[in-house]
Amino acid sequence: MASSDGKLLSLMAGKMGINSDKALKRASEFLRLLQLKVTASSGLRQFSDTSRVVMCLDLACNKLGYPFDKSNLLKLAGLNKKLYSNGLNLIENLLDLSKPVNINTLCVQLGVSEVASHAQKILDKYVELHAQGPNGARPIDTNMPIYHCASVFMACKHNKVKVDRSQLIEASRVKKVQFDKLIEDFVPVLDNMGPKEVKKSASKRSHKLIDLVTKYDEESKGTENEEEAGQKESSDAEKEDFEVWKKRILGEAYEAN
């Protein structure tokens, strides 16, 4: 990499708050490889040297898991959000950096791991129904991110789990209209699926039951203290019956957990 590029890299890294030598070295390597990819048809010429440096630094930190302040990325790169995202995807593809998008990874990133299994079943069912339809002769490339993103979205919708739709569209690497069209194609899949698979925990109900038993126990003890000494024998018998009832109720509550 030319010395001028090295100076620009150091300058942008400073403005981005990146002081990791490993990140700088990785970004420098990305830039060097990128120079070999610059052709009339590569699409890179629409991005300035500064833009490429910023995006390579962003990718380097992302691959190394190095956190930094991304609030001024677009300003430093001189790009709007859409162009910046397109530039990142372009560089990732040219350098073979893009990680395959799959259901499990998406669910972890979006905090909806509970629907991962259901999303996979939805995708499998979609492939099955597609093979039976008029377009069945044309196989589906399930390695494409859009199918995994659509499956996760439909699983969340089916189970009423909140998810950021915009993040799924971005991860799908297609336009919103294409994503929405595929979602429509997925609707018949839900009609062929069973009931919701994400079960709500019974812990709340169990805790309420335990609290009720505890409260009743405390009230029973308070009542016993207020009883006259002559009624103690009768009270002991009632307490014994209550202990049997309490043991049974608590046992059922813990089994529900």
TrEMBL record:
* The ORC6 first cyclin-like domain, residue ranges: 12-98
Read off the InterPro entries from this record. ORC6_cyclin-like_2nd, ORC6_cyclin_first, ORC6_met/pln
Q: Name one Pfam family in it.
A: ORC6_2nd
Family membership: Belongs to the ORC6 family.
Which UniProt keywords are given for this protein, alphabetically ordered? DNA replication, DNA-binding, Nucleus
Instruction: Tell me the segments the record calls region Disordered.
Output: 216-241
Molecular function in Gene Ontology: DNA binding
**Organism in which the protein naturally occurs:** Thrips palmi
Q: Which GO terms describe its biological process?
A: DNA replication initiation
Give the coiled coil ranges. Answer: none
GO cellular component terms, alphabetically, are: nuclear origin of replication recognition complex
Q: What is this protein called?
A: Origin recognition complex subunit 6
Tell me where in or outside the cell this protein is found.
Nucleus
Q: Which domain of life is it from?
A: Eukaryota
Occurrences of domain ORC6 second cyclin-like (ranges): 101-186
